[in-house]
Amino acid sequence: EVQLVQSGAEVKKPGESLKISCKGSGYSFTSYWIGWVRQMPGKGLEWMGIIYPGDSDTRYSPSFQGQVTISADKSISTAYLQWSSLKASDTAMYYCARLDGPGGPPFDYWGQGTLVTVSS
Amino acid sequence: SYELTQPLSVSVALGQTARITCGGNNIGSKNVHWYQQKPGQAPVLVIYRDSNRPSGIPERFSGSNSGNTATLTISRAQAGDEADYYCQVWDSSPLIFGTGTKVTVL
To answer: Which terminus of chain B is less hemmed in, N or C, by CB atoms within 10 Å?
Structure first.
């Protein structure tokens, strides 16, 4: 059974750093891309970027380029999303999801989401 | 940049048919995927590549795509179909989500 299990909710202060994770199981982690999607409170879905854990090829949405870093450790089947300096506007639910490749396929499996709250 | 426009809300009577549109310039030339998101839950893929249903998705869900509009159709709507629905395409590497439609079953 394909599963993506994300790390737990986080409460941080503005200016702090953060790294959240997404662990894949039940499939070949290095054969599929992992994407990250933001959902701000009461709002829609926004694509942030994708990574291919096989070779760490990473693509970012222009809206998030330079704002976050996406990485992966294939030895432990885990992808990451990190911030170096959080802002209150980063408060959102973040989902990871699996896809077959860039340019066409859908996100076929999703993690349960990680809620990030940034508040002073 | 490419944009996908969905109606903010759609209401459907129990047992009737709901149609959710997703408008985009020449969207008929792209593969459209649809996701269902119930309150407090992660999105779930319900239609991929315009009209294909993943395993486990009821036949009541169907999709079409032509010209400037893609459509998700929910037949014989049930109370459990109440959710937000999002369309999604790829546009030259950026992945685009639609604005989302809240479906209410009356």
So the answer is: N
